[in-house]
User: What shape does this take?
Amino acid sequence: MGRIYTLANQKGGVGKTTTAINLGAYLAHYGQRVLIVDIDPQANATSCLGVDKHGVQGGTYEALITAAVPPSFILYNERLNLSLLPSSPALAGAEVELVSEEGRETRLKRALESVAGRYDYILIDCPPSLGLLTVNGLVAAADGVIIPVQCEYLPLEGLGQLTQTIRRVRTALFPDLRVRGVVLTMFDGRTNLSADVVAEVRRHFPEQVFKSIIPRSVRLAEAPSYGLPISVYAPTSPGAKAYDALAQELLAGDGVPVAVRD
Assistant: This one.
């Protein structure tokens, strides 16, 4: 059985989708079978991998409504060795449609059970909210939550809300839910604020902050417009090297040997 990690932060613009895409791409680079699951109605992860969200015929909306993932829903990118369960604007209606359904918080977990054995890593990209979609992502996070935190003051303020939600989900729905790690993103070494945020996050999560820090990068910002991860768009850039290091750090922590894909 592969590992399932959910990337969550209710604050938008902290690098959550960027981390999901680029971490997934580097895990695939190191020989892992990877599935990105986009449960954000904005479908940014879907667009970042070059898929037209308006043309999606089956994806996370249908998976949540039916609690199943037919093979035809999963799109495979041969160049990247990366699979995607895409999102579409229809997903925006899922929270309303599921609100009266029994077991609504476990729909995604049940849907992924049929495909989990095919992948070494499943990375779930949540919306920037703490609603039902994110709760589904947290309940499905069999191996933990990865929290991207931008190295600025306001994202740090919101971290408390997310940890409270994780505690509530742990108490009511999934006692084994844990934080796998915190990823510090958009670090600017020229400012004292970035260094202060790093220190503060490490104080709150002394054993759970990844050593690999993602810098603020023009190349990382450009890559989605080309439908490519940074590993392909600008593989020698500082952002690429940071995500490469993060993938290796995650693999090492999971006890997975690193082997570069041919």
